[in-house]
Design brief:
Layout lengths: L1 H4 L2 E5 L6 H11 L4 E2 L3 E2 L14 E2 L2 H9 L3 E7 L2 E6 H9 L4 E4 L2 H10 L4 E6 L3 H11 L4 H15 L7 E4 L3 H18 L3
Parallel strand pairs: 1-7, 1-8, 2-7, 3-4, 8-9
Antiparallel strand pairs: 3-6, 5-6
Helix pairs in contact: 2-8, 6-7
Length: 192
């Protein structure tokens, strides 16, 4: 399983940095790359579907799964809990698929401890103002939530040097190309 773990790609960075957009572009370019669906205690946003966008869990169910050891990683973020179910990753690895995780910095650190061969990429914004603009432009959070997310982002940005790869999302096409190069290089090194 060690060689399979090198086909796990952790994409992390602050909320609003464009992780989802980059991963979407990456998956268009590398269709074999499968996205692990995270679990969360937050309520679905408009158009989100359970089991597709997230596994939406009640806090009690989330706690039960933590106690049962079902999470590879989990974290509290802006008043909600997020996590990666082991079954999501292990099932895809067992089927021979490379897997990408879109997770926050807390979770990325946990994955680093449990799967040291996973490739970790920190997505950074070109500047603080771009994060604020993206978060406000999404229209999914109230001003208090945006303020909280920006405070967390400041702390997360201090952690960027912990990660083996960093991509600045100043231009979506250029950043996607850089991310693709990292992933293709690692996939070409994986046995099998």
């Amino acid at each position: 399983m060690t060689s399979a773990k090198s086909s796990v790609f952790v994409i992390t960075g602050p909320s609003g940095v464009g992780k989802g957009s980059l991963i979407s572009g990456l998956r268009e370019r590398i269709p074999s790359l499968q996205l692990s669906t995270s679990a969360t205690t937050r309520k679905p946003r408009g158009g989100e579907a359970d089991g597709v966008d997230y596994h939406f869990l009640e806090p009690e169910e989330f706690d039960r799964r933590i106690a049962a050891g079902e999470f590879l990683e989990y974290a509290d973020y802006s008043g909600n809990r997020y996590g990666t179910l082991r079954s999501e990753v292990e099932g895809r690895i067992a089927a021979g698929h490379p897997v990408v995780l879109e997770i926050e910095v807390q979770g990325a650190r946990q994955v680093r401890d449990t799967m040291p061969a996973a490739v970790q990429v920190f997505i950074a914004p070109p500047g603080h103002d771009s994060l604020r603009s993206r978060l406000e432009g999404r229209g999914t959070d109230n001003p208090e939530a945006i303020k909280a997310r920006l405070a967390v982002a400041e702390e997360e940005l201090l952690a960027r040097d912990e990660f083996q790869h960093q991509v600045v999302n100043d231009d979506l096409e250029r950043a996607t190309t850089e991310l693709e190069a990292i992933v293709r290089d690692k996939l070409s090194q994986s046995p099998g």
